[in-house]
Specification:
19% helix; 177 residues; alpha+beta
Length: 177
């Protein structure tokens, strides 16, 4: 009888450990699915405001669908852009970094890869469609115990438009909702 009780206690302890580990993984995967960001450069060739949606999450990666609107105005021209991208983010942190004791602010680094396009319309000119592969670094700052995520992204976006390639780069700052 004592053996069975000991086995039940052992099984209960293992189940509790498994539940705690699984709950932590689920908490990671269920952070906010929506974010807002501001971007300079990138797939929109000027300043843009973007809405990000995360339709897929895994333990060490996630996918992002992003859409926005950009605007540029100077003394000679005005233009509006509508950027759209599909990206996938791969966690770069070492496993020991992720399993470390909780900090007040936790930092995650991701390799972001994907494809973007932007519809650009200038006054008095025909619209242009920009196509750009995206490769960059996304760094997230998470306040422990909260679902708030602040992030920045630095990425390279060689843009193809009107049968020409040109170098592109971007910087984004964002916050989850």
């Amino acid at each position: 009888m004592k053996r069975n009780t000991a086995r039940l206690h052992f099984a209960g302890i293992l189940s509790f450990i498994f539940f705690c580990k699984t709950a932590a993984q689920i908490q990671y995967r269920t952070r906010s699915d929506i974010a807002l960001s501001a971007e300079i450069g990138g797939i929109s060739p000027f300043l843009s405001a973007n809405f990000e949606f995360v339709p897929y999450k895994a333990k060490n990666s996630f996918g992002v669908i992003r859409a926005g609107v950009g605007f540029k105005s100077n003394s000679t021209s005005q233009a509006v852009s509508v950027p759209f991208s599909l990206t996938y983010n791969f966690l770069l942190n070492k496993k020991k970094d992720c399993d470390a004791a909780p900090q007040k602010v936790f930092k995650e680094r991701f390799l972001e890869t994907g494809l973007g396009l932007s519809y650009v319309s200038s006054l008095g000119q025909r619209p242009v469609l920009y196509l750009a592969p995206i490769v960059g670094l996304r760094k997230q700052f998470i306040k422990w115990g909260k679902s708030d995520v602040f992030f920045y992204k630095i990425h390279l976006t060689p843009i193809y438009a009107e049968q020409h390639f040109r170098f592109g780069a971007g910087l984004s700052l964002g916050h989850s909702l």
